[in-house]
Amino acid sequence: MSSKINTKAEKTQALPISNLKSKTYPLSSLPAFPISKRPDNRKNFNAIWEILSQTYPKPEIELDFKTPFELLAATIMSAQCTDVQVNAVTKVLFPKYPTIQNYANADQTVFEKEIYSTGFYHTKAKHIIQCAQIIIEKYDSKVPDTMEELVKLPGVGRKTANIVLARGYGIIDGIAVDTHVKRLSNKLGFTENEDPEKIEKDLMKLADKKDYDDLSLTLIFHGRRVCNAQRPKCDICGIQELCPSAFL
Questions:
Q1: What is the tally of structural domains in the chain?
Q2: Is 81 marked as binding a ligand?
């Protein structure tokens, strides 16, 4: 049986390169910034912050806790996990471990099972237990209240330390940069950096120190409720006219 295939692909002949015409564009029509980066929008920070601070007045952390150590433990568990899920775990966990000594004496295998649903449970359990042991041994059972001391604890970086200081002790040192703060800071044109510590420094140059903690929580709430990573709701966003990423 003979097969005769006459597809359009067979009939289509490639044009010689010499026949292809390239279209040129004047430099004035090209964007002045790399496509992958947002334009510098720092000049609009104050206007954006005024709107957002009115949209989310007096923001409160959504993690449940009663003591600085509970806040420390909850914040460690919140890495790559929602506050809702962490709260569901700590609702059972905190009553079972009422003192820091209880955490220091915890069986890690058992503890891992108790916080399993927060993800990365092995590392989180190890860090929380180690933190308790170190705090008892070096700090007389009191969670440190300085950045320098906090970041020396296992699993504690500047983000966690800033949260513990601000919400556990009312001490404002810096700005907690999580995934939402990182993403929105770039989308809004406040920074070109990807490193959380560099982003924190960039934001600290723009914001008043008294607003550091509120700024972090506000960007988190806006990222969760309006400026979603996959489907940002630009049509209902109060800062769309000031945002270089609106409707992109």
A1: 2
A2: no
